[in-house]
Structures
1.
Amino acid sequence: MDVQSEKLELIKMLLETDDKAIIEAVKDILKSEKKEAWEKLTPEQQEKINIVIQKENRGDIVDF
């Protein structure tokens, strides 16, 4: 099964559950993954990303 199919299957499973503990566990895993990815960046890379985010928030960057 390809990644897109796996994602769709996971979405389907999440939509079918009412178990808040499962939903929170999935959220925690995804948040942890993002945090780990951020921490793997060098301080210079983090700074560049933060600058771009600030510019975008001010409207200095225009998407076409």
2.
Amino acid sequence: MNAVTPPGGEQSLGPTARRMILGSQLRRMREDAGITRQEAGYSIRGSESKISRLELGRVGFKERDVADLLTMYGMTDPGERQQFLDMVKESNEPGWWRRYGDLMPSWFNDLVGLEEAAARIQVWEPLYVTGLLQTEAYARAIMSHGRKDMVNEQVDRRVALRMRRQKMLSRPDAPRLWLVLDESVLHRPIGDREILKGQIDYLLEMILQPNISVQILPFDRSGYSADSAFSLLRFAEEELPNIAYTEYLTGAHYIDKRDEIERYSRALDMLAVDAETPDRSRQMLLKRRAEI
């Protein structure tokens, strides 16, 4: 039984991805040993649902619990055990976004960590420019509901968090970002004319990067493939499943079931076919920029 070593070097993965990889390895070891989740939970003074959460990487690991599970699953080699437990420690280290923990709902924490680890991020946005490509002014207008009197320190920190998330797009190993944007977004008056003009300018600048593609879905083709925003995150590591992410007013869903992922993937394919090509989309951005 070999302990997990993340592909691409240990520094390439954040704590969220590490937890998911370790959880996946624990699940495989448990299944290979013929042990049920209920039995495993009992051995660490927990429940079947606790084991499920651990195996999905949805919660932090306690070293004592993992050490007990490794013993139960038959990993006895001291070197392999230590390597696994060292990764457990690293998976519990806080990511850079923890400094914004007071601003972020618990369900949003994992998204930031998963974005950091993703190889490809595909996004459908029918209402706004995606947060990963927003300007400060555009983000501030959204977060203050378009009211300058509502801009305060908390809003400014939320904007700073959003800008910090965007830095991953300029890393040497940056993920590939592919955005399908509804044409209505280019006409929605977020903030004022100058803010919208600046946002379109920024999109025109960002699509020059080799890892960023934007397609515009024209008005007359909207509303057929998907009616609400979602993201699909894909990873280079075999241990990590593709994950679809969608928000609602008070939370978010993280979807990793294969049949459901297939539906999101097909929806993105249909959106890409219906949308204008990246070159034609750039022309639409230039045209709209000239109209404002």
3.
Amino acid sequence: MPRSVNSVASRARRKKVLKQAKGFFGRRKNVWTVAKNAVEKAMQYAYRGRKEKKRNFRSLWITRINAGARVHGMSYSQFMGALKKNNIELNRKVLADLAMNHPEAFKAVVDQVK
């Protein structure tokens, strides 16, 4: 019995990877073996980047809350401690948005915890 290769599926798999490599420089975009490695590495970077993005945004929110709290004479840690003590459950994303775009609302929150 002759060997079955299923070249349709093989070509589809290769085409999928080469399509993902679109925009890469040099042989990384059109040579199968090079493109496969480049796409695998890119996927690893993308996975890691999705985790890093969460860290970066949390850091940004903390910086904004700190700046907003210091305008009203509190440090970030004092402000967050007072929020917890007064059972105000606003997350950092919302607090950062208030501090940045709605300073009067943020002042109301600070006055409530003081």
